[in-house]
Amino acid sequence: MTKSSEISVFDPAIVGPAVRSSFAKLDPRVQFRNPVMFVVEIVAILTTLIFLRDLAFGGSRLGFSFQVILWLWFTLLFANFAEAVAEGRGKAQADALRRTRTETDAKLLAVDGSTYELVPATSLKVGDIVVVEIGDIIPSDGEVIEGIASVNEAAITGESAPVIRESGGDRSAVTGGTQVLSDQIKVRITAAAGSTFLDRMISLVEGAQRQKTPNEIALNILLAGMTLIFVLAVVTIPSFAHYAGGTIPIVALVALFVTLIPTTIGALLSAIGIAGMDRLVRFNVLAMSGRAVEAAGDVDTLLLDKTGTITLGNRQATEFLPLSGVSERDLADAAQLSSLADETPEGRSIVVLAKEKYGIRGREMGELHAHFVPFTAQTRMSGVDLDGSTIRKGAVDAMLADASIAGKHRSDGQAARELRQVAEGVAKSGGTPLAVARDGRLLGVVHLKDIVKGGIRERFAALRQMGIRTVMITGDNPMTAAAIAAEAGVDDFLAQATPENKLELIRAEQAKGKLVAMCGDGTNDAPALAQADVGVAMNTGTVAAREAGNMVDLDSDPTKLIEVVEIGKQLLMTRGSLTTFSIANDVAKYFAIIPAMFVAFYPQLQALNIMRLSSPESAILSAIIFNALVIIALIPLALKGVKYRAVGAAALLRRNLLIYGLGGMIVPFLGIKAIDLVITAVGLA
Amino acid sequence: MTLNGWLQIALFCAIVIALAKPLGWYMTRVMASERTFLSPVLRPVERLLYAGAGVDERQEQHWLTYTVAMLVFNAAGFVVLFALQRLQGFLPLNPMQMSALSPDSAFNTAVSFVTNTNWQGYGGESTMGYLVQMAGLTVQNFVSAATGIAIAMALIRGFARASAKTVGNFWADLTRSTLYVLLPLSILCALFYVSQGVTQTLGSYVDATTLEGAKQTIAVGPTASQLAIKMLGTNGGGFFNANSAHPFENPTALTNLVEMVSIFAIGAALTNVFGRMVGDERQGWVIFAAMGVFFLAGVAVTYWAEAGGNPAFAALGIDGGNMEGKEVRFGIAASALFAVVTTAASCGAVNAMLDSFMPLGGLIPVVNMQLGEVIIGGVGAGLYGILLFVILAIFIAGLMVGRTPEYLGKKIEAKEVKMAMLAVLSLPLAILGFTAAAAVLPTALASLANAGPHGYSEILYAYTSGAANNGSAFAGLSANTPWYNLTIGLAMLMGRFLVIVPVLAIAGSLAAKKTVPASAGTLPTHGGLFVGLLIGVILIVGGLTYFPALAVGPIVEHFAMLAGQTF
């Protein structure tokens, strides 16, 4: 699957099969799933039978009846076509996926753990352990239990840059169908053949397992109810006509009925649902159910990890803060020396800052006869030893506890107190203080700052407009967290977050009736992902996280949560807008058909023919043609979705009511009139 | 149309608006079992009633229990009323020696009063003895109205509560609304009516000798007491056959005004009760506003049509509007207003002959009822009726803001939509179904007094009035036949209970849900936009259904009249 491939709405490669499938979908067993269109089909079959009888035994106005019936069938075919096109777009993606799923052999590890035998990948069972070496395709989904490898996951993400997969930690999940580019790993299989990630992805994008979502079910009930109301409105008409001493042709009744029932939304409903899933897929997010997409539109609270989502992944040095009696340049010099061999982004940013601010150029470690002392979890500091001099930098409390420094400074001494003060100032402003010492003497503090991503503040403002509260999750202390939260413009934060208090926060929000979305990747995120209403698991994450979430982000980009919410909203809006449009359409159809219907015995009702349609036949025909064509005309909107703007519900409602409500009332008047002019000119009626 | 006419209409509207808030405040306290200024007097009575009936007023009921209690109570009311009518020949307080009603008429009348319809297939003063009028009809006038209020309360509680299993106690709701609301207001109104000349006596009819020496029997009776609750409870069943056109049932312009106001008072106040109980009075005013738009549009059309009169007369040089069937003491404006009020609010009392209205003047009352009696509506019934449309409007348009629909923090899901659709379906089923049958059945057609579309309109009106639980009659239709007694009786039952039961199911389902706090992303339901949306949905979903049926009735009659043809 190529990333963000724009498939045009009426791509010939999709339209061809879609046309064929429109006919196949006429099967009543398929139509039965859609109550409105099923009713249309029953009516179409009955009127066709009556027409055939009339054809055989003689009847009046056969040409007119034929045209009405023809358009009934077109209405059905157009509805099927809409669904087929939506499915077709998914199928194209599924086919691309299938091509990548080549038949592979797996190297199944024997019980002794040293030899392996070649078996077909399809015969692997959950719990089997396989060896995957350079160039091998990973045979099935699993978890790396030994080794580290770079893996090309282009098959599922479309991203060709290799990613690292290693045992332990949060990057242990591997996906069947991806390829190992270097090294060798042992993988424990976690998915049986046929239910792998790739298989699920294929069936998802094909819509094969599509189940109706709760909102779709409710909408179908409404549409079925409206259909029943119009059954009552129409079946009683012959009796009223009989009272007036007239009769009404069945095709006219059928035309009124079919144009009144909400065929537009009935025809496009499943296409809208499929297109919503499809939009997510093209966004490289896989929703495990349509329910999750719907829930995304309803989200009230968004939990976002600070690092990588709100701030750039790495902190950067922004300032040197020397203690009294130390020059800023000396501090910068020492800090730069200690960081020369430090390849962490923080270390590099210190070198860059020293050069920018004081012109201290990079020096070669070799020339200085320097020896780099790397960071360890025990010492929690790093630095360099050169010509009898030692330079160290590290966390403030770690540095103060260090023996060599403690030898020179008492912990309650002047310098130590000053250091703590400066460090606290840095922490308060949202930064991380890094103490620097030379030969045991404290020099000062480097201010490492979390850099808030550009534009993120505006996005949070937009979310607030949508009524969504953002909560930043961070392991930082409350002081630092508060500063970054204020800078990024999030509504709230959870500092010193642990998996437990994350889960607690979600439960607390849900108890208030709110829907919560979050993303995560680690195994310890799994409970929270499962608890959240929308849990987006990163594809780079662990198997546990991927199983717990109801969406998987193939790009592993946590900011996508925001787009996922927008796509969910767009799906619901499209559904609502077309429902409103469909129902508003009825006004014009009444005005077209009612005067035409009763004209034989109540010619006075011509006064209601406000569109001045040329004849009763052309009025009825125009209405039913409009009704069918509007389905085709709205397919692109159903597939692309109504544009979502973060302007607040009141403004959205006003705008959409105007376009789809009022517009839905006016458009058919114009459309029916135009069709009437055409078919009168052509001489069809 | 005259300025005087419009001033009368404006005065009426001003009084209704002014009453909504204080009455709403009072009723909210009453229904929440809080203390009111009447408690010292009424609380002991209330306790006595509970003790006598063995009811624990604090024992809240699940919606199913509530529904069963309501159904049992209504069934019992039906049986008693049916028996009273059939046995009235043997019962006391019957000075005019009225005999038993026929079974079909008794069935129709019993259903009619239990369902708060008060459709009258009989003529009051010539059929019903005082005991039936007072112990049968008037009692049902109170309790059928109280039932409506109780159902509305249950639904409001559904919206107001969160994660609750119960929707209130039917017996307590019934007792409190009767004792604290309907009874005191009725006493006030009855005293006022007596002061204006409405009769109130248990004596027999009065014989008078006219100037020409002819003997005339003048019917009297305990009218004022029944009149008060007839209006307040939106019952509409007249003591006399001529209903509120009768000089003893509506003697002056002042009684006319008070009668109209008391039709709307409780229904309008209930929108305020709703707003208060869901914690945002604006929500109540929005519903009130939507009702108000429909009402004013209806009044404008009816008044315009009646004041305009028949162009055929104008051509003869006769002007001054259509006074046929109207009382001179009320005039055109007050008659047109009364007709709209009584049909908007499911009351059904009339002070003029609707059959004699202009086609469009007669169209508005039919449309008012067909919309489901949601313009103020019957007491309680109007509120729960319009809330059904609110649910549908929210469901249809709510998605357009990008969230699954919610109203007052409650998610509107499959169950609510299903129940709302069931309730909304019951009305067209009863109205269109029975009208279609009657329009072709010779038995039914034999009752018609007029031919053509006007005769058809009489049938349509009768079933519409029955199903919508209004009870007003277009007249011109001899409805006291077994066919009409039975079918209109069924229409009334469908229009009442096929709505109430789904409404209570919705109440139960909503009460059990969590309340989602509102945010900037929530569909706002307290502004003008929502009023417009609600109106649109009521018109399209509730109104368009009847367009074909109306087209071949009042609408074609109107165009025929313009062409100089009358029926």
From TrEMBL, chain A:
Mg(2+) binds at residues 521, 525. It catalyses: K(+)(out) + ATP + H2O = K(+)(in) + ADP + phosphate + H(+). Keywords: ATP-binding, Cell membrane, Ion transport, Magnesium, Membrane, Metal-binding, Nucleotide-binding, Phosphoprotein, Potassium, Potassium transport, Translocase, Transmembrane, Transmembrane helix, Transport. It is an enzyme of class 7 (translocase). The keyword Transmembrane helix applies. The chain crosses the membrane at residues 35-52, 64-82, 217-241, 247-272, 587-607, 619-639, 659-684. The keyword ATP-binding applies. SUPFAM superfamilies: Calcium ATPase, transduction domain A (SSF81653), Calcium ATPase, transmembrane domain M (SSF81665), HAD-like (SSF56784). Residues 105-206 form the P-type ATPase A domain. ATP binds at residues 342, 346, 375-382, 393. PROSITE patterns: ATPASE_E1_E2, COF_2. It is a multi-pass membrane protein. The system is composed of three essential subunits: KdpA, KdpB and KdpC. Part of the high-affinity ATP-driven potassium transport (or Kdp) system, which catalyzes the hydrolysis of ATP coupled with the electrogenic transport of potassium into the cytoplasm. This subunit is responsible for energy coupling to the transport system and for the release of the potassium ions to the cytoplasm. HAMAP family: KdpB (MF_00285). Belongs to the cation transport ATPase (P-type) (TC 3.A.3) family. Type IA subfamily. This is Potassium-transporting ATPase ATP-binding subunit. It comes from Ollibium composti. The gene is kdpB.
UniProtKB/TrEMBL annotation, chain B:
It is a multi-pass membrane protein. Keywords: Cell membrane, Ion transport, Membrane, Potassium, Potassium transport, Transmembrane, Transmembrane helix, Transport. It holds the Pfam family KdpA. It comes from the Bacteria. The chain crosses the membrane at residues 6-26, 63-84, 130-156, 177-195, 253-273, 285-305, 330-350, 357-376, 382-401, 422-445, 483-507, 528-549. It is found in: Cell membrane. Belongs to the KdpA family. Part of the high-affinity ATP-driven potassium transport (or Kdp) system, which catalyzes the hydrolysis of ATP coupled with the electrogenic transport of potassium into the cytoplasm. This subunit binds the extracellular potassium ions and delivers the ions to the membrane domain of KdpB through an intramembrane tunnel. PANTHER family: POTASSIUM-TRANSPORTING ATPASE A CHAIN (PTHR30607), POTASSIUM-TRANSPORTING ATPASE POTASSIUM-BINDING SUBUNIT (PTHR30607:SF2). NCBIfam families: kdpA. The system is composed of three essential subunits: KdpA, KdpB and KdpC. This is Potassium-transporting ATPase potassium-binding subunit. The lineage of its organism: Bacteria, Pseudomonadati, Pseudomonadota, Alphaproteobacteria, Hyphomicrobiales. The gene is kdpA.
